[in-house]
């Protein structure tokens, strides 16, 4: 079902959050929000202006919804191309991050940050709008 990197991430998440978190580790809305947060942080780190990000939100949400399986594929293909253009090895970056996040002191920082977030929000101190 899952490939090795996906298994490594799931194992890390179980170790880092279960049962320490006040959140359901399988909560889909939490995962969606965290993915969008990380994608925006990547765009910000590569100097995408904030107003362009806002314009992209309007553009995407002004179109029909896509099919999740295809959109995951498109996301991975696009991320791979982005990494190539910026001379970033995607696989090395991924494995380096899971190794960094697995360090006990980093896991504790992640847990502390997680405790500050409301149950169904990626934003510290803010419950999501229904």
List keywords for this structure.
130 residues, globular
Protein topology:
Elements: H1 4-17, H2 28-45, H3 50-61, H4 68-85, H5 90-101, H6 104-115
Helix pairs in contact: 1-5
Can you tell me about this structure?
By secondary structure, the chain is mainly α. It has one domain. Helices cover 66% and strands 0% of the residues. It has helices at residues 4-17, 28-45, 50-61, 68-85, 90-101, 104-115. Helix 1 (4-17) runs parallel beside helix 5 (90-101). The protein is globular, with a radius of gyration of 16 Å.
Shape: globular
Structural class: mainly alpha
Compute the number of strand runs: 0
Flag low-confidence runs: none
Helical content class: 55-70%
Roughly what fraction of the amino acids lie in strands? under 5%
User: How does the major sheet shape up?
Assistant: none
What is the straight-line distance between the termini? 32 Å
Give the number of domains. Answer: 1
């Amino acid at each position: 079902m899952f490939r090795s990197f996906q298994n490594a991430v799931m194992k890390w998440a179980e170790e880092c959050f279960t049962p320490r978190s006040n959140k359901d580790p399988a909560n889909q809305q939490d995962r969606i929000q965290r993915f969008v947060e990380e994608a925006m942080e990547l765009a910000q780190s590569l100097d995408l202006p904030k107003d362009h990000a806002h314009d992209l939100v309007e553009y995407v949400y002004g179109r029909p919804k896509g099919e999740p399986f295809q959109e995951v594929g498109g996301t991975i293909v696009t991320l791979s191309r982005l990494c190539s253009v910026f001379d970033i090895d995607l696989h090395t970056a991924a494995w380096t991050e899971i190794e960094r996040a697995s360090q006990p002191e980093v896991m504790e920082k992640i847990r502390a940050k997680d405790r500050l977030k409301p149950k169904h929000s990626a934003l510290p101190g803010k419950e999501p709008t229904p």
